[in-house]
Every structure is written in C-alpha cells, then in structure tokens.
Amino acid sequence: MKPAANLSHLWPELPYLERFEAASAAGFKGVEVLFPYETPAQETRHALIRAGLQMVLINAPPPNYTGGARGFAAVAGSEARFASDMLRTYRYAQALRVPMIHVMSGYTQGEIAKDTMIANLKEAAKTAPKGITLLLEPLCPESQPDYFLNDYALAADIITAVNAPNVRLQFDSYHAQMIHGDAVEVFNTYCDLITHVQLGDTPSRGAPYSGGVDFPALFTAMRAASYQGWVSGEYTPNGHTEGTLGWMEAL
C-alpha cells in the first residue's frame, strides 16, 4: 500500500504550491487535489516535479466559470454539459499525468438519475484516454445533503451496469462509516471493486485514530484483501499535519 496526501485538506496553512514540498518532506510519493483547476496545469506540474511527486487523483467536473449549473453525471438533461466537462477534465488530467478521476454524481434523486449516470459513464469510459480510471465515491448526507450517490450498494450497482474496466470504486473511510456505520464491513463487502482508498475519521472528518473508525481492523482488512493501491489522507488535521501522520506507518 502506498500513502498519499490530499493537498486540498492537509497543510491548510500553506499556499497551494508550497504544499507539494511539505508532502515530499513528510515522506509521501503521491498526492491528490480535489479541484486543481484554478491553478494553471503547468504550475502544478512543475510543483510535482520539484517535489518528486505523482498526482494520483483529481475530481470532475471542473468549475463552470460561466456561472451556470455543472453537468454532473446523474443530472438528467445535462448530458451534453457532462460530456464537455469530462473532455476538459481529461485534458487537465493528461497534463498532470493523473491516472484516476473521481466523477461526481451531483445533486438529484430517483431512478431517472441512476439511468442517466449509467448512460453518461458508459460514454465517459469510452472517451477516457488510455491509462485513466474513472472512480465513483459515495458521499454521506451529513457532508453533502441531497447528493445522489450516497450509498455503496448504489455505487456497486452502477459500476456493474456500466461494465467497463476503467470504471471502479473509491472507498473513503469517513463516508463509509457515516453512511453504513462500519467502514471495515463496507471495505470487505466491496473490496473487489475498490481501486483507491481515502482515510478520514468520524464524525467530523478528523485524522485517523481520532474518532469512530476502527483503523487497525481496516488496515488488517486491506492487507487481507491484498490491496496494493494508494491510500490517501483526506481529513482535517486540526493542528500541524505532521502530527497526524502516524497512519502511514501502519500501511
């Protein structure tokens, strides 16, 4: 397992481009950024090179600077906008050499939303550049009220229906615990679909070992499943980030 740092959350006291050096100094080889689009891709790329880091994940869609609604994956009637947003994201991902993109479902409900998301993902999987995997991540209502993809079983159903090798599941211990009450059980249930792991504790997305998630059991389950991917710290450090990195030693 390979530790990564989510630079949208960690080292919040530092300017964006300085967080890369901080992550490298802490021993990370990979980083992720939720929405890196406000900074020119080449500036981020240079920061990655200087720090000797790989960008492993970004989110889609990018911001809509015209002020209109985003073309989220599950929003019926926004299919053309979603396709356009994904093409923009692919260009950014290629510039940063990013292998994974978290595709957000958006804020909607119902079977039509599910059908829309399945259809959109089938097309997105076909147009994705070689080497890029699209990830689905359920988000809890406490964090994202009215978010469509709010259940791991729903995510698994959509991935199965899309039936594409480059559409997989993103596991987040904070969201899994908040949605289903036992992050370890969620990991064990869906480990065959999981390609990326993020760590945060409940109830307020604190650092690992600060709340309700059983991280020793989770790490044991990950090893038992022979998970070899990235494990990213995505949490609010509530103090110096360096003092919250003990979880790296458990991987």
From TrEMBL:
Assigned EC number: 5.3.1.22
The keyword Isomerase belongs to this UniProt entry's keyword annotation: yes
Gene3D superfamilies per the UniProt record, alphabetical: Divalent-metal-dependent TIM barrel enzymes
PANTHER family cross-referenced by the UniProt entry: HYDROXYPYRUVATE ISOMERASE-RELATED (PTHR43489:SF6), ISOMERASE (PTHR43489)
Family: Belongs to the hyi family.
GO terms of biological process kind: glyoxylate metabolic process
Name of protein: Hydroxypyruvate isomerase
Provenance organism: Sulfitobacter undariae
Enzyme active site: 137 (proton donor/acceptor), 234 (proton donor/acceptor)
Top-level EC class as recorded in UniProt: isomerase
